[in-house]
Design a protein that fits this description.
Order of helices and strands: EHEHHEHEE
Radius of gyration: 13 Å
Number of helices: 4
Helix content: 40-55%
Oligomer: single chain
Strand order of the largest sheet: 2-1-3-4-5
Structural class: alpha/beta
Distance between the termini: 28 Å
Length: about 130
């Protein structure tokens, strides 16, 4: 039986790893989550100014999509982010923009999902395309 993967572009903050992984496993019945980490990735992807980091994130997502046959990718932003210290509303807008950026990569993900990890380390779905 083939193992099912999802992909997460997540903050490097260790507090976000388990909630995002568990949410994906529970809601999409995946076995594994390929975790791509970067400080404040929603800020990086939405501002579209650091092409080197963005290309690195894209290449890692490409490996997950093509080598692990991942069909789902999420971008997560979170409360109390040291790498992207903005308010929740700004994070939500950045998450929405990041989903559009990821979709524009043209990788074979069936779902691109934006997640917010709140102050209780619980997942709130922001957007899915």
């Amino acid at each position: 039986m083939a193992q099912k993967f999802a992909t997460a572009i997540n903050c490097m903050d260790g507090r976000t790893q388990i909630p995002v992984t568990e949410w994906l496993k529970e809601n999409y019945k995946v076995d594994y989550v390929d975790m791509i980490t970067e400080p404040g990735p929603d800020g990086v992807l939405s501002k579209n100014i650091d092409n080197q980091i963005i290309e690195s994130l894209r290449r890692k997502a490409e490996i997950s999509a093509y080598k692990h046959n991942s069909k789902i990718i999420v971008i997560a932003g979170h409360h109390d982010c040291a790498g992207n210290p903005v308010d929740k509303d700004t994070h939500i807008n950045q998450i929405k923009l990041s989903v559009q950026t990821i979709k524009s990569w043209g990788l074979p993900f069936e779902k691109v999902i934006g997640l917010w990890v709140n102050e209780n380390w619980e997942i709130e779905k922001v957007i899915e395309i």
